[in-house]
Give the backbone structure.
Amino acid sequence: MNIMIPAWVNGVLTPVEKLEVHQSGLRHKAVSVFILRGTQVLLQRRALDKYHTPGLWANACCTHPLWDEASDVCAVRRLKEELGITVSDSEFRQTLEYRADVGGGLIEHEVVDLFVVTVRQGLQIDPNPEEVMGIEWIEYADLQKRIVDHPEVFTPWLRIYLADFSETIFGSNFGAN
């Protein structure tokens, strides 16, 4: 893999190989993007070849900035690489932190810069099959219910985001609580 991402080692932000970060459970930088269309949320189903959480549903984009890459630049780059989406504006919402076991002895301990992109009808999406095996627009209320009914089909971070950060992500117009 040999992708270097920013992680804290002994309190110092350091470039560390991505797989090593997850194997060691190191606290590291991340970026997450939610794409909203009215009261709908775009989900992606992670490709089966992903080294963790393959086949699970996640928000539009969840990734790690490269060493020395700005979070907003990373968000735009990865939306293009994963979903074939070109965006010119995203709204930074908050930096948040979580820790979750993602299976296979791997841990995500992320300090996440969270972005929201609001779109209208007609967004062209061209998923990269190496990254994404499916996409779905889902009503926010239906997503909440589906996560309660079938949490095992969603990534740990999406479950955490909806449980703990709904108001930050979706605001009151979605009925977030």
Summary: The longest strand covers residues 91-103.
